[in-house]
Design a protein that fits this description.
about 140 residues, Aldehyde Oxidoreductase, domain 3, alpha+beta, about 40% strand, about 30% helix, 3 helices
Length: about 140
């Protein structure tokens, strides 16, 4: 299985991650791209800033990949990248790409991958508003 896991200060490239999971045996590639939105709970967001402890965060991403492969043995590829540092409104903060022979497995594994990431990745996010800023840890899925 092809895998790629990255914590990076550079802009995320969906196409590059899709290429990392591309495989002749894959009939499906499912992706999730989480972008910085312009508001949170009614307040205008100017940008986000992410901080992580890199070695631990990269290990957590690898662990997520291992868990996905165990749950869906037919997967042909898993790539997960998370941005650190300043991320502007509209820019991707996280990308998950999963390939599999069939769409159901690819879609399910991709959805599970982002949910696992939100639950377990040790990342801290500073939301910068027009009138201040606040640090947040990852919250429960769906928020």
């Amino acid at each position: 299985m092809r895998t790629f896991f990255e914590i990076t200060p550079y802009p995320l490239d969906l196409s590059a991650l899709v290429q990392r999971v591309a495989d002749p045996a894959a009939g499906a590639v499912a992706t999730f791209t989480g972008t910085t939105r312009n508001s949170f709970r009614g307040k205008a967001v100017l940008h986000l800033e992410y901080e992580v402890y890199g070695p631990l965060a990269e290990q957590v991403l690898r662990d997520i990949g291992t868990e996905l492969a165990a749950q869906w043995p037919s997967l042909t590829g898993v790539a997960i990248a998370h941005r650190v540092g300043r991320v502007e409104v509209g820019e991707p903060s996280v990308v998950v790409a999963v390939s599999a022979p069939h769409r159901r497995e690819a879609l399910a594994a991709c959805a599970d991958g982002i949910e696992r990431l939100k639950r377990s990745l040790p990342v801290w996010k500073k939301e910068v508003f027009e009138d201040g800023e606040v640090w947040r840890e990852n919250e429960s899925p769906g928020r």
